[in-house]
Design goal:
about 170 residues; mainly alpha; two-stranded antiparallel sheet; 7 helices
Length: about 170
């Protein structure tokens, strides 16, 4: 219902937007339109974020699947080696200091994305109708990550409690 109201508001704004009257107003509007960033301007950042998120998700996924018997550093070494094979530079140090450190808080989302698989699109992890199931899987990965341990660090959990970025699903009554 809220989505429909938002679309109606957007359409109302588009249809009732005052047209520029003078040449100066037209030029200003054209300059404003030209100054708006285009998706291609963010393409490299989006690809890098996707790659880093997938790495963090893979680390968490493997740690959870190994159920305390795995070695996070071995997983990170294997991932770095796979990138080197594909002629991309990535070191374990970069995974530790940049990727895992920054993306650990969203790793459950990426692990769920990997688990759901590219059924619909590589970029979109689930259909809107599957969102509740997807977020339930995210929460399961979060719990397993916060309570799970790895072999080399028996006193620390894989994820820090309360670090994961929360997204709550509220089913609308329609």
């Amino acid at each position: 219902m809220r989505a429909l109201a938002a679309v109606r508001t957007d359409l109302d704004l588009i249809l009732n937007f005052p047209s520029p009257q003078s040449m100066v107003e037209r030029r200003d509007l054209i300059n404003l339109i030209r100054s708006v960033a285009k998706p291609k301007d963010f393409e490299s950042q989006m690809k890098e974020g996707f790659k880093c998120g997938m790495i963090a998700g893979q680390i968490l996924l493997e740690a959870v699947l190994q159920n305390g018997t795995g070695d996070l550093s071995a997983t990170k070494k294997r991932i770095a080696a796979e990138f080197v094979k594909s002629r991309q530079r990535l070191s374990v140090k970069t995974i530790d200091n940049a990727i895992w450190k920054q993306y650990r808080c969203v790793a459950p989302y990426w692990a769920a994305h990997i688990t759901f698989g590219p059924r619909h699109s590589v970029a979109i992890p689930c259909l809107p109708i599957e969102l509740q199931s997807f977020l339930a899987m995210v929460d399961r990965f979060r719990v397993l990550g916060e309570t799970g341990r790895t072999r080399q660090s028996p006193t620390k959990s894989i994820l820090r409690p309360s670090e994961t970025v929360p997204i709550r699903f509220v089913a609308s009554a329609t």
